[in-house]
Design brief:
Layout: H1 4-12, H2 19-24, H3 30-44, E1 49-53, E2 55-59, H4 87-99, E3 104-108, H5 117-130, E4 135-136, H6 141-151, H7 155-165, E5 169-170, H8 179-185, H9 192-204, E6 208-215, H10 221-238, E7 241-248, H11 264-277, E8 283-284, H12 288-291, H13 293-299, E9 306-309, H14 328-337, E10 341-344
Parallel strand pairs: 1-9, 1-10, 2-3, 3-4, 5-6, 6-7, 7-8
Helix pairs in contact: 3-11, 4-5, 5-7, 6-9, 9-10
Amino acid sequence: MINKNDLKNKIKSGERITAEEGTSLFDWDIVELGALADLRRKMIYPDETAGFIIDRIINYTNICEAQCRFCAYHSKAGRIDPYNLNIDEILNKIEELNDISGLQVMLQGGLHPDATLEFYVEMVSAVKKRFSDIYLHSFSPSEIVHISAKSGLSYEEILKALKDAGLNSIPGASDLLVDRIRNIVSPKKSTTEQWCNVMRALKANNMGSTATMTYGMGETNAERIEHLNVIRSIQDETGILRAFIPWSFSPKNTDMENIVPATGVDYLKIVAIARIYLDNIVYIQAGWLTEGLKLAQIALAMGANDMGGVLMEEVVVKATGVETSTNMAELVEIIKNSGKEPVLREAI
């Protein structure tokens, strides 16, 4: 039996908490939980600032062998016609970002049946040749696993080739690192262990990453902590994770429309508990894209310390019916009104 006062003192002292203790936090009052999370944030990040970046997601294809049940964007979901952007189309989109002094590009695609390592290298090389100052935070661990399966090359070899071509880092698109859930919602995608092995290969290539969390897909609170524990453990091992980004699953237009969407309270508890549990990750992003700007603003008082990107373009979440958007002036105002100082940063 967990003693609440003992756990509260443990959190206040900055001690690492256990998975069982982390699971128990879901039953705590949200105001108390948020205050403790903000205290933990101050321990690891004492500055009263919140960063953001001007970036663009470019979805260069929606043809994907994974066909995840939680995705409304892949071509076989039947809502968006299959497409592939060519190199010129990709470069034109980056030019638009460059025109407004954007700094970061996230090239995102699916597990394309015809994609080869050469295809990825060509894409990265073309971008860097024309836009040498653009930071490429692109692809995903599942894509690295996919390329490896098709090429027979190791994760380390693939990442070295991409790094040599100009790739800076890879988003640690994690979905939910619980194989029970992955077997239900994305059985054709990478496993938890494969995700971890990509992180290890990134470490071997001196490359950074992030970790995300898509919750509200039928998991238990204990499984939410299981996900956080995988992230904490791999960060202990590698130290390459620069940020943690949670967001709720949007069921509309997906193969899981029967799922009841997570609430705003669920989101704020995830942010607060993540801040307390992930004692080795400095930045936690407030997910304005999926949760809305007001909720993201509250998250800045409950453990989050970054607002992510302005996002010049986003289409995958939009396919589920969520159409939140913002601009630099609005984001700056939201950060200021939260009592924080906005900081335009260069990369993830």
